[in-house]
Amino acid sequence: xxxxxxxxxxxxxxxxxxxxxxxxxxxxxxxxxxxxxxxxxxxxxxxxxxxxxxxxxxxxxxxxxxxxxxxxxxxxxxxxxxxxxxxxxxxxxxxxxxxxxxxxxxxxxxxxxxxxxxxxxxxxxxxxxxxxxxxxxxxxxxxxxxxxxxxxxxxxxxxxxxxxxxxxxxxxxxxxxxxxxxxxxxxxxxxxxxxxxxxxxxxxxxxxx
Length: 209
Known about the structure:
There is one protein chain. The protein is mostly beta strands. It has strands at about 10, 20-25, 30, 40-45, 45-50, 55-60, 60-65, 70-80, 90-95, 100-105, 110-120, 125-130, 135-145, 145-150, 165-170, 175-185, 190-200. A hairpin with a 5-residue loop joins strand 10 and strand 11.
């Protein structure tokens, strides 16, 4: 399991507001060409997953920052060259006791879906709604001890509404919380995720249904 006690590596060149650091293995990345854009490429086998006797991997490249108290963090993510099952990009929340990933991920059928993985400490994976393609807006929010993950598609109908619920969870030992973006390529040679319009706020999302 990735633990936040592992020293984060400061990244002064991060294209996002605030102080950001790397966790996990080194990864290829570039900022731009648009302002506030990050292109992150995970190498072969990159993942964070813990299921004893099945699969245990602690190698997720993530650009994260520390959050104290309530917050919300949101970004638009597009997965590029994600041709293999489980190729993904998204948001990750980490504490000293575990982690939660919410991502746009390639499914076994070749389509795309919102997938969440809570590793507390063993991984509990849940596939959410299908997506029309490898692009979505993701949001994680914290109020007190409760966290929630939500999403919305770039093209929405009135029936879709705004943010749609993906998962709610609590993280033990959430005094020190790190959250940010990641890319993974558990079963492929590489996968690139592009993040745009990332923003954060100390005001949590009130409606988390």
